[in-house]
Amino acid sequence: MKRTLLSLVVLSTMFASSAVLAAEEGTAYFGIKAGYGHLETDSHRRADNITPDDKDFVTGGAYVGYNITSFLGVEAGYDYLGSYSYKLNNKSYDKNLHGAEFAALIGIPFNKTDDVFFKLGGLLSTVNDDLHDSSATKLAPLVGIGTRVALTDLLGLRLEYQYAHKVADIEDYGYAPDLHNVNLGLEFRFGGAEEAPTPKAEPAPTPKIVERSVTLDSTALFNFGKASLTEQAKLSLKGVATEVSGYNLKDMSVVVEGHTDRIGSASSNQKLSDKRSQAVASELVAQGINSSSIKAVGYGETKPVTGNKCDSLKGQKLVNCLAPDRRVEIKVSGVQEVTE
């Protein structure tokens, strides 16, 4: 019998490694339980001519409790603890045992949800003798150990072992047995602070891809057929550099494209567009643009914007008509951080 009880106590402590319905400050609970009980005594705790029978029986009960803190609670309940018997002059007499228990529970939490509890209190036991229509009550010290296993947030299983010392007096019923009781309960919890809602995570701002383009008339930057910037052109490019720097872009890329009209040979126009784009890029670097982020490229006469509207013109009228083709385009791209 003692070996069986020891195995059940070990089993109760093993439950602590699983999900546990730990005590929560300010919560109350109600439970029902059923289990196995055993009464035993020794020769020093019995009257003469009394032969006690160690008795095993089914037990049951109900209890209520309140968690003062996460590690300290109080509890009260009623237990039916079965029946036991003894022999007097070879005649058996049966007794019924029940009682009210009250105790403090001390919890040892492993984390936010796990604990094992120890119980310390008293059992106000009552022994009924139906044969003689009598009863007697005794306050017996009560200790126990147990754990609570969560099924849901409000419902759990509880396994515990209890021991009560001398639940009856020798003077009343011939001997003073000890009680061993292992029970399994279903526990309902209520009250306590409501769980705060989990704050909804705000999505991180999505970086914005920025693309900007500035078109400058070559007439405002260069003399006709030349690749050297005028002083006025340098002032204009200073403003462009300030604007580009103000974008505050990550991974910025600046492409300077040089374009010419179709007057002259294609090779000459290509060389002129290369030199003009490089001149503008160099001036932007001088004005503070990072040289590693800037690139110059010339397209010569290959990307006109005037189409065929100037085909019937000649001389100065043709030169004037083709002016939009003579241009420098500054294309800026990068990632702009978005702040909320």
Helix-strand layout with pairing:
Blueprint: H1 2-14, E1 27-40, E2 50-53, E3 55-67, E4 72-88, E5 91-109, E6 115-129, E7 134-150, E8 155-164, H2 170-173, E9 178-191, E10 208-217, H3 218-221, H4 231-245, E11 250-259, H5 266-286, E12 294-298, H6 315-321, E13 327-336
Parallel strand pairs: 11-12
Antiparallel strand pairs: 1-3, 1-9, 2-4, 3-4, 4-5, 5-6, 6-7, 7-8, 8-9, 10-13, 11-13
Helix pairs in contact: 4-5
**Which class of secondary structure composition applies to the elements?**
alpha+beta
Percentage of residues assigned to helices? 10-25%
Question: What is the CATH domain class of the largest domain?
Answer: Mainly Beta
Low-confidence runs: 1-20
Characterization of this structure:
The protein has helices at residues 2-14, 170-173, 218-221, 231-245, 266-286, 315-321; strands spanning 27-40, 50-53, 55-67, 72-88, 91-109, 115-129, 134-150, 155-164, 178-191, 208-217, 250-259, 294-298, 327-336. It is α+β, with helices and mostly antiparallel strands. The chain has 2 domains: 2-191, Porin (Beta Barrel), CATH 2.40.160; 208-336, 2-Layer Sandwich (60s Ribosomal Protein L30, Chain: A). The strands form 2 sheets. Strands 1-3-4-5-6-7-8-9 form an 8-stranded antiparallel barrel. Strands 10-13-11-12 form a 4-stranded mixed beta sheet. A hairpin with a 5-residue loop joins strand 5 and strand 6. Helix 4 (231-245) packs across helix 5. It is rod-shaped and about 145 Å long. The model is unreliable at 1-20 (pLDDT under 50).
